[in-house]
């Protein structure tokens, strides 16, 4: 009976109370530890690994799907494939712009290309500059062209060799450097054009992949492949499937050569016993189109952001992470690499970086809290776009044309579906792009990249620049002149900034990398008629692509830029293919491109003239091109503050800017033009033949 008494309702109540309190205590402890874990984001992570060194290898122009580990059935990349199998491979890594300079700038600054201009402003923080500040040795070994110092892409690296041609030389350089820096923390950036045009493979690899029954025009020489690409792109020949395959055979042979280089590089890391503390990253700046969209090149006018152009390999091998055979199918961008490397190095990531670290994905177990990227963005001077897992939108700023691709049902991106989806849906996609661009504009301003600092000593008021005005920079007596109908103003240059050499008419200005020259030019130019002209001589033959001259007409917050670039790939004996590009900044939405031929050591007269709706380019009096005008006016009647001139290995003489198209006032013969040029202009009907 007592026992029954012991189980009185009061005792039962107390028991339940105690159990409840115990349960609540346990639950509270569990909840607190969960919150702490979530806050520190370490719930699913192992101990932080020790990574001392970072080697970033950019194999320029390497299209992801040509590597074995990305689906090429041929044995093109055994070494890279083996690193991928022992490490981490990203299936969907993208370049923001399939073009070497902006893509590499994004890769090394974590900024989208519309944020910066080239050369890169030294005030932009780069991955290299941050690692250097944190005690890392930083070195960049690149192979010239766009990857030279002058473009600012290598800002922040303390040691640079930007003239390394060929893989054996690159390997020698690396070995020497590693031998003396193996005990230090370092960031080594390596770049090669080995799989880039001109397509020509080492003979043994060419023979391994080539079809020996092929009877078409393509041989395994730079001359032959260049000629074929040029003629195909200009629509002068038809491209057969076997020609396309021939070029891919050569391309695969080039990849195999680079793969051999990666093998040797690894042997050195192992020999030096630094492999275990190194994060080795292999990627590229863009892919390459092999006529899938009727064009050979990094990208095509038809489809500038096709996956074959923008999707890049991304392989990370890092023994310290003990992560093996991991394949990641999330979307990532080249701009995500700098924050990832900084997180791996336990360095604070700057707020201005636009990329997001994917370091947690590299660990053995994912951090499940890491947000997935919904889309990756693309941009060029003329196009903008983005890609999700399912869709890709491409917008052409010139024509306003929109294209939309269904990547699930049409992975080769052959059908534009923008016309068959609802207008509302299309608008919402375009709005996404607009928001992206607005954010970029805000960041650009925040980074101080939109403001142009005025030089001291500018004329205090703007000069009246009317229809009869002319601005002359003859250079021979260190002066520039503004001439209007009733007014002449002459000012001297600061001679210290100049590199004078013999010009066409006395002194000429030698343009050398890194040096820039500014002429104060405080005047507003009329938009509907005008001309810019100068004489140009190419002093030194370039081995690679180079920007020969750049004239920037700087307004307070925007500018018009006229750039001349020589493309090294289209070489004939005395001429090289060049492009003169007229770019409206800051949005770079308006660009006109003229393709032309330049020869060496000869003076060229360059005349860029605009009249109403049309723009003309005349080289030596030959009409190189005549195109429709920008959608916005040439100068928009804004105040031009100065003209900035820079370039590489060429001489400029007798720069003139006038407010009338030279084509109509040339007969006044105020200019020192050759009679021959005038005769050509007459023959072309651009000036009155009576004068
Ligand atoms: Zn490139």
Describe this structure in words.
The chain has two domains: 58-439, Alkaline Phosphatase, subunit A (3-Layer(aba) Sandwich); 452-684, Jelly Rolls (Sandwich). Helix content is 26%, strand content 29%. It is built from 15 helices and 30 strands. Strands 15, 16, 17, 18, 19, 21, 26, 27, 28 and 30 form a ten-stranded antiparallel sheet that branches. An eight-stranded mixed sheet has the order 4-3-5-1-6-9-2-10, with helices on both faces. β27 and β28 (622-628) form a beta hairpin. Zinc ion (ZN) binds at residues 60-61, 100, 285-286.
Distance between the termini: 135 Å
Low-pLDDT windows of residues: 1-5, 39-45, 451-466, 664-673
What is the name of the CATH superfamily of the largest domain? Alkaline Phosphatase, subunit A
Q: Got a strand count?
A: 30
Q: Would you summarize the structure shown here?
A:
By secondary structure, this protein is an alpha+beta fold. Helix content is 26%, strand content 29%. Strand 24 and strand 25 form a beta hairpin.
Annotate the secondary structure layout.
Elements: H1 2-6, H2 9-40, E1 53-59, H3 78-86, E2 88-94, H4 100-109, H5 127-133, E3 137-141, E4 159-161, H6 167-181, E5 186-192, H7 203-209, H8 222-233, H9 241-271, E6 278-283, E7 289-290, E8 296-297, H10 307-310, E9 311-317, E10 326-333, H11 337-344, H12 359-362, E11 376-379, E12 383-387, E13 391-396, E14 402-406, H13 423-446, E15 470-473, E16 479-484, E17 487-492, E18 500-502, E19 507-511, E20 516-524, E21 529-538, E22 546-555, E23 559-571, E24 575-585, E25 590-599, E26 603-611, E27 614-619, E28 622-628, E29 639-647, E30 650-658, H14 662-665, H15 675-683
Parallel strand pairs: 1-5, 1-6, 2-10, 3-4, 3-5
Antiparallel strand pairs: 2-9, 6-9, 7-8, 11-12, 12-13, 13-14, 15-16, 15-30, 16-17, 18-19, 19-30, 20-29, 21-26, 21-30, 22-23, 22-29, 23-24, 24-25, 26-27, 27-28
Helix pairs in contact: 6-9, 7-9
Bound molecules: zinc ion.
């Amino acid at each position: 009976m007592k026992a029954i008494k012991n189980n009185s309702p009061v005792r039962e109540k107390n028991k339940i109370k105690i159990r409840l309190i115990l349960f609540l205590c346990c639950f509270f402890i569990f909840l607190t530890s969960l919150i702490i874990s979530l806050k520190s984001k370490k719930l699913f992570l192992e101990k932080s690994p020790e990574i001392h060194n970072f080697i970033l290898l950019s194999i320029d122009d390497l299209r992801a799907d040509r590597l074995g580990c990305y689906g090429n059935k041929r044995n093109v990349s055994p070494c890279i494939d083996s690193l991928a199998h022992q490490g981490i491979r990203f299936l969907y890594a993208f370049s923001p712009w399939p073009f070497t300079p902006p893509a590499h700038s994004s890769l090394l600054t974590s900024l989208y290309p519309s944020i910066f201009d080239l050369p890169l402003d030294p005030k932009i923080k780069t991955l290299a500059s941050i690692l250097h500040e944190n005690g890392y040795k930083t070195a960049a070994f690149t192979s010239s062209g766009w990857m030279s110092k002058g473009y600012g892409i290598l800002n922040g690296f303390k040691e640079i060799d930007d003239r390394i041609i060929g893989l054996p030389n690159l390997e020698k350089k690396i070995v020497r450097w590693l031998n003396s820096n193996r005990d230090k923390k370092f960031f080594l950036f390596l770049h090669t054009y080995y799989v880039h045009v001109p397509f020509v493979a080492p003979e043994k690899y060419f023979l391994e992949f080539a079809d020996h029954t092929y009877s078409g025009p393509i041989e395994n020489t730079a001359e032959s492949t260049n000629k074929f690409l040029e003629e195909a792109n200009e629509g002068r020949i038809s491209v057969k499937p076997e020609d396309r395959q021939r070029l891919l055979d050569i391309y695969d042979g080039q990849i195999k050569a680079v793969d051999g280089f990666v093998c040797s590089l690894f042997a050195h890391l192992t020999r030096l016993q630094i492999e275990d503390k190194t994060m080795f990253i292999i990627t590229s700046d863009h892919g390459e189109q092999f006529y899938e969209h009727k064009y050979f090149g990094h990208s095509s006018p038809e489809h500038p952001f096709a996956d074959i152009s923008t999707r890049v390999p991304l392989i990370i091998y890092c023994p310290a992470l003990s992560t093996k055979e991991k394949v990641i199918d999330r979307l990532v961008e080249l701009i995500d690499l700098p924050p990832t490397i900084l997180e791996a190095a336990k360095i604070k990531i700057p707020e201005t970086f636009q990329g997001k670290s994917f370091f947690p994905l590299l660990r053995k177990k994912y951090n499940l809290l890491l947000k997935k990227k919904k889309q990756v963005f693309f941009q060029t001077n003329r196009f903008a776009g983005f890609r999700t897992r399912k869709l890709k939108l491409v917008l052409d700023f010139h024509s306003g044309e929109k294209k939309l691709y269904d990547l699930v049902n049409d992975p080769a991106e052959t059908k534009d579906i923008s016309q068959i989806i609802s207008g509302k849906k299309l608008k919402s996609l375009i709005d996404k792009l607009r928001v992206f661009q607005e954010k970029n504009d805000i960041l650009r301003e925040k980074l101080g990249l939109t403001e142009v600092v005025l030089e001291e000593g500018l004329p205090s008021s703007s000069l009246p620049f009317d229809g009869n005005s002319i601005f002359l920079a003859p250079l021979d007596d260190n002066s520039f002149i503004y001439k209007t109908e009733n007014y002449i103003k002459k000012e001297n240059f600061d001679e210290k900034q100049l590199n004078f050499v013999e010009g066409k008419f006395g002194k000429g200005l030698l343009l050398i990398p890194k040096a820039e020259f500014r002429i104060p030019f405080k005047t507003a130019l009329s938009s509907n008629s005008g001309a810019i002209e100068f004489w140009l001589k190419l002093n030194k033959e370039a081995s690679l692509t180079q920007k020969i001259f750049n004239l920037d007409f700087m307004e307070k917050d925007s500018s018009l830029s006229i750039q001349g670039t020589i493309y090294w790939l289209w070489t004939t004996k005395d001429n090289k293919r060049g492009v003169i590009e007229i770019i409206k900044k800051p949005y770079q939405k308006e660009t006109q491109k003229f393709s032309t031929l330049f020869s060496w050591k000869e003076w060229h007269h360059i005349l860029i003239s605009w009249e109403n709706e049309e723009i003309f380019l005349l080289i030596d009096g030959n009409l190189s091109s005549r195109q429709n005008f920008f959608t916005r006016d040439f100068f928009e009647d804004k105040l031009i503050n100065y003209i900035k001139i820079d370039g590489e290995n060429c001489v400029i003489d007798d720069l003139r800017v006038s407010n009338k198209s030279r084509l109509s006032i040339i007969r006044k013969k105020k200019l020192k033009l050759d009679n021959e040029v005038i005769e050509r202009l007459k023959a072309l009907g651009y000036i009155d033949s009576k004068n």
